[in-house]
Amino acid sequence: MTSARTILVATDLSAPARHAVERAFHLAASTDSELYIVHAMELDALDSLREMLGDDVFAVRAALNSDAHTRLEQLTGDAAIHRGVAARTRVAEGNPIATIAAEADALDAHLMVLGARGESFLRHALLGSTAARLVRKSSSRPVLVVKQVPHEAYRSVVVTMDFSPVSVQAIRMARRWAPNADLVLLHAFELPYEGKLRLAGVDEQEIHQCVASSSKTRLKQLHDLAATAGLAPTEYWGRVIHGDPAQQIIALEQEVDADLIVVGKHGSHTAEELLLGSVPKHVLAESQCDVLVICDPRAAPDHSP
Q: What pLDDT, in 10s, does the model give residues 60-86?
């Protein structure tokens, strides 16, 4: 690659999916990245009409392909969104998940961008099945799920921290794709067996003291990890909160008016059918802002420029 960074955005060419393309253009322009746009068409269903259409089915395929190319050209030629970036486009036939993943591998993409809503490609109300499965499948690349209209660069970013190696990667990715945003590093926790401690009759004051002591220890861990990721103390705001992590992330999103949440996932793409961890899954479903899902770096290649 001639560019230090490569972005791949997938679109079904619907109006909602346009937001993802707009955000990808914005990121490419602001980070001097190469941008590729792929539209995957699964046309196998047309074969079921072969008896009725005969050889006309090939004409239908050709017409759909031509229409997709035309709409991609119109999209990339729109000066209102391309920001001077000359994107390369591709229309491919095949299963969207396999096609997009293969394209990302072929390009060695540093970032995959998907829309959270769509018509056929991403058609579910909250998070399209293709987007969700790609997030589960991808262990080697960050996946940005776009939910908002991208009026401007990211301003306020919440980076979730669980103190695993993925947390360091999450900080670095936040700085890479949102270099001028305000960063809030959040670690939310509950004590092991906290509910059972109360059932066992442990005094509430003792539990409170344990929470306070653990919070102090965890805040130091947060600052140490931020330093490991290369952040100076003035470059972020650290928060350690006692409570359900998934709920606290969504609450903080509203508190700081975040337009991006960065969350880590663990595991390998070979376990595609396994669900995302409960925290990433909850954040993807319940957040209002865009979500950048970072893989565990122990299962992923280093894409540092």
A: 777 877 888 888 888 888 777 888 888
CA neighbor of 290 nearest in space, from 138, 187, 173: 173
- Cα–Cα distance for residue pair 261/249, rounded to 1 Å: 8
> Strand pairing of 111-115 and 143-146?
parallel
Question: What phi and psi values does residue 156 have, to the nearest 5 degrees?
Answer: -135, 120
In the chain, the amino acid numbered 30 is S
The two structure tokens encoding residue 295: 């893989």
Strands lying side by side in the sheet with 6-10: 88-93, 34-41, 6-10, 111-115, 143-146, 290-294, 260-264, 156-160, 182-189, 237-242
Tens-place pLDDT, residues 136-183: 655 578 999 999 999 899 999 999 999 988 899 999 999 999 999 999
Distance, C-alpha 178 to centroid of its chain:
13
Over residues 19-24, mean pLDDT: 93
With H, G, I as helix, E, B as strand and everything else as coil, classify residue 85: coil
Tokens representing residue 75 in the block = 């999209």
